[in-house]
Write a structure and sequence with these properties.
PhoP_reg_network_YrbL, 206 residues, YrbL family protein, single chain, Kinase-like_dom_sf, alpha+beta, 5-stranded antiparallel β-sheet, 7 strands, 6 helices
Length: 206
């Protein structure tokens, strides 16, 4: 059984807490909060298992964090993922939400807009969908050449009863584009305004 301690804590979302893997700093372990139904936790896991057959070498870049399996911990069942890190510093990559809330950012809006467009194109091309598309679920990975890659770290999957988007490019494109608009990620000003509204309403996790 893997022993996870308070010092391993990284962050948390609405459903799970995230910890450094105590034996490997390149991995993280996500553990469901006690009040969250187990069925909810497995929605993403089941989808990630479903898309394991996709050839990641054909991706323009790895645009979602790789899932590496389950493990029993002292805090309950854990789910192991790769940890997204900036290339030079090897620090954990900050989320898109962090960069959009900065007064002065080292990354330009143009870079972020281009990164979002590239992310969208990858999702459409490989028919991989994000049900909970939010700025806090996307890491901005800083590369050695000062470029960036946007990597989804949570919320992967969809619940379509008739998964036409899994089979046809037309439906995949429509689905992804709708999701970006619904998430206010079609415009950085719209996304910033959404974050401000959530902050003002008292949301602690946005």
């Amino acid at each position: 059984m893997l022993q996870i301690k308070d010092k391993n804590y990284i962050s948390e979302g609405l459903a799970r807490k995230v910890y450094f893997h105590p034996d490997n700093n390149d991995l993280c372990v996500k553990i469901g909060k006690p009040e969250i139904d187990t069925h909810h936790l497995y929605k993403e896991i089941n989808y990630l298992e479903k898309i394991k057959s996709k050839d990641r070498s054909k991706f323009a870049y790895p645009f979602f964090a790789e899932y590496l399996g389950e493990i029993e911990t002292n805090l309950g069942t854990g789910f192991i993922y790769e940890l997204v890190k900036d290339e030079l510093s090897q620090n954990i990559s900050l989320t898109l939400r962090h960069y959009l809330e900065m007064n002065k950012s080292s990354i330009s809006d143009t870079q972020i807009e281009e990164g979002l467009q590239r992310l969208k194109e990858q999702m459409i091309s490989h028919k991989i969908f994000v049900g909970d598309l939010r700025a806090r679920n996307i890491c901005v990975k800083l590369l050695k050449n000062n470029a960036i890659e946007l990597v989804v770290i949570d919320g992967i999957g969809h619940r379509d009863f008739f998964p036409f988007a899994d089979w046809f490019h037309y439906f995949a494109k429509k689905k992804v584009e709708r999701r970006f608009v619904k998430a206010n990620l079609h415009s950085l000003s719209a996304q910033r305004n959404l974050i401000k509204r959530l902050r003002a309403s008292g949301e602690t996790i946005v």
